[in-house]
Amino acid sequence: MIRTTDAGLLRVVTIDRPARRNALRPADLDALEAAVTDADASVVYLHGAGDAFCAGADLDVVARLDDPAAFARHGQRVAEAIEASSSVVVAGVDGAARGGGVELALACDLRVATPDATFAEPGVKFGLFGAWGGTVRLSRVLRDGDAMDFALSGRVVDAEEAKRIGLVSRVVTDPKTVAEDVAANKPDALAVVKARMRDDRPREEQEAAEAAAFDRLVSAYASDIAADRE
């Protein structure tokens, strides 16, 4: 079950299956995608109910899959939708993030942990691996050696180590406060910064887009200043 709460420029999205450590079924993936992509808020805060962020795919569902590749593509599409969302998406990880839960967090723009957060890709221990884009994003977020170690060992990484290797940017008592601080900034600027930092085109094209975006924002800023003086 996915719940949403809107408060001004912040949408809170809660993965709410605490009895299953917030493990996701296909319908949950669809609801999660809609909750993020339909948001009018400039910032989306994604977290889990209970004592886990997300255990990833519901393994009872995985064991009965008729088309595992389609299920993998389903999770990939949701992760891509989170990454491409016009909103800044902040993952607040409190408790366990496992498998697909780590992969969804990797698709977010910011990952913030509590001291109780832990991370692992345990699939290798029983013959699986993270197929919701994890093998792609891990090597983008972490250094190559750290990414390989995390993916191949299946070991549990605590919050402080996650910060040291770059898996999260901060360790705080309440990650939602980070999302609230980001949401206090100007929505247009947030959208531009996200778009620019997600741009993977050749450098010259990126710089041209950056200059054009700066031009638009300066024009809007100047108009606001002029209006305030009237």
TrEMBL record:
It comes from the Archaea. One of its GO terms (molecular function) is catalytic activity. Belongs to the enoyl-CoA hydratase/isomerase family. This is Enoyl-CoA hydratase/carnithine racemase. SUPFAM superfamilies: ClpP/crotonase. InterPro entries: ClpP/crotonase-like_dom_sf (IPR029045), Enoyl-CoA_hyd/isom_CS (IPR018376), Enoyl-CoA_hydra/iso (IPR001753). It comes from Halogranum rubrum.
